[in-house]
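Example with several molecule types.
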Amino acid sequence: MSAALEVRGLRIAFDGKPVVRGVTFTVERGECVAIVGESGAGKSLTARALLGLTPADADVTLDELLVDGTDAVGLSERAWRDLRGTGIALVSQDALVSLDPLRRIGAEVAEPLLLHRIVRGRAARAGRVRELLARVWMPDPERRSRQHPHELSGGLRQRALIASALAAAPAVLVADEPTTALDATVQARILGLLREIADAGTALVFISHDFAAVRRIADRVLVMKDGIVVESGPVAEVLESPRHEYTKQLIAATIHEPRASAPAESAPVLIAGDVSRSFDAVPAVIDASFTVKDGQTLGIVGESGSGKTTLARMIVGVDAPDSGTLRWTAERRVQLVHQNPLGAFDPRWTIARSLREGLEAGGVPRPERAARVAELLAEVGLAPELADRRPSALSGGQRQRAAIARALAADPQVLVLDEPVSALDPSVRERVLRLLARLQRERQLTMILVSHDLDVVGAVADEVLVMQDGRIVEQGTTAEVFTAPQHPFTRELLEASGPVGA
Amino acid sequence: MRRAQRVLLWVAILALAVIAFAALWPGVLATHDPLQTDVRSALLPPSAEHLFGTDQSGRDVYSRVVYGAGRSLGIGLLATGVALAVGLVIGALAGVAPRGVDTTVMRVNDVLMAFPEFLVALVVVAVLGPGPVNIAVAVTLAAVPVYIRLARVQTQTLRVAEHVEAARILGVPRARAFTRHVVPGVLGALSVLATIGIGSSILAAAGLSFLGLGPSEPTPEWGLMLAGGRNVLGQAWWISLFPGIAITLTVVSATVVGRILRSRADGRAT
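Resulting structure tokens for the full complex:
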């Protein structure tokens, strides 16, 4: 039997500008092949080309495309419609957008069954939908099939989407960043499900920017950069001995060793005692007690809704606890770097003007501000000509650097960073993390870093707080928490994000 | 589509430029004195001597249309400008006011918005009495509610926006963050609406004049001229037609420019 998917010489160009330049690979039944790369690498376009779903203005050429034995080169739109679903199906990144908000989950999953006339009769279809939902480990499939997408959590929505992709029993499943928007533990479960689907005989193409996820699920990996596959091979081999420089960078950027050195003793600057905060009687933070030590980095880890951002906002002082105390041992200037740097800048102002405002608020006299703006930009590694741009004209990494520069404008002693790198590509993230480490050294900053990503926290923090449902369930030095986790949730998180050696 | 839109935009801008020129320097474009009556040359059709013909009193319609531009454009800009300023102040204050005050202001505003703008203007003139100043007031008042509503919602959105909070965290005082980051943002949104509002204000003012509630004869005013020619429309169509074209061209051009500017502003925001 031939391979489930064979692609040879896939090229995609826009207006004569090549974006994907000659991609060739095959996927066997029961095998998972991952395509890894950063934004702009062409991996999503490649995925879409496999389903004949490239944008109308894309110029696609193929030497060969065999889907489940069917030659799909130059297929008509009608023929593609027959092949999609039965031969090859797609699970996209954002399940909330992909699912029709007005249709119940059951109807969504049943659609391929209707389209391809697989199961006849209402009762038989309902039964098949229940089987499919059970197949993707949907809890309580009977009830869930009657609900609308907004009633499901992100992880369950992703499951519903996978169920509908599987409905017509395709030979190939293409999953485009299926877990990027999900919390670590949920992500781990979805990855487990996809792996199990592959093991049951479906060929899986897994698109991701995250080597940690790829390692958990894929058999083979293709590393893409600027539309070219720069390296490919079995996952273990590529991870252990990457040949291409770019692969090495990517691996280093997504998989860190947790900081091993025990932090040197220093005096506490902030002592929190039984801090609690609720919104409309729903507790967000419950009895949080911890200390932040001078010149060190405290990492706060948790999933969405765990209360970590609320805690950060209280530390900065934009929100106040309902009960408990946050006591600074000395007068400290505290600054916050927002989660979303695009929203944190006035969209009508240039970067320089925003920085000048920060300097003004920090008491820098007017004549010195222009020179200080230049110094700040240099300090965060931004070219001086970017000063006159508006935030919308900067890349994600540049924006985050600008946001850090503005926080530094007020000359803080404590910097609170809310998910500073979660929206960035791995190699950009790596550079921003290095920038933070350097700033901490040079300015003797005390940092509090909030993140959902255990790997990021492990790489930069001296001490770690793990939060779950508003409570601090574990705290200690990074080395302790990573090597000897006490709380079951910490262990689950560690397993889910799977740093090296775990 | 994009190309057609660009052509349309330039045509509209050109038309507005000509009308603005007529409003600023009517003497340069006019061929006759707009008030000069000459019974011997009454009701003459368009010719080289009288481009748009003459009216019942023998006044040159073309020159009167040229001289009318200033009044129409003036009232459109003035009414819109004042409405924008009033709307900004009331709307922004409602946006930060305690809930009770906000609710009261907005319910009154809703009642005003429930009536068509022209009807509100008509009622205001009925109360204040006819006259050019009063129709300016009426048109302005009729336009205000829309600005109040937009200003209020923009204020409420922007004052809790991340970048405003970011400025506060930097240590920018609350009042300064408000005037620096919130007010200019609200003003930006209102000014886009205003470019569309100019057209409807001109139309409303001309409509009130047409009904005889604005300036009185022999003032060269488009709405009034339109009304003046309506009894002789059968014999002398040119008396009403040309002021009518002038009104239409001005309103359509102003609206086209406004809408295109708005769609560009929206495109940038997303």
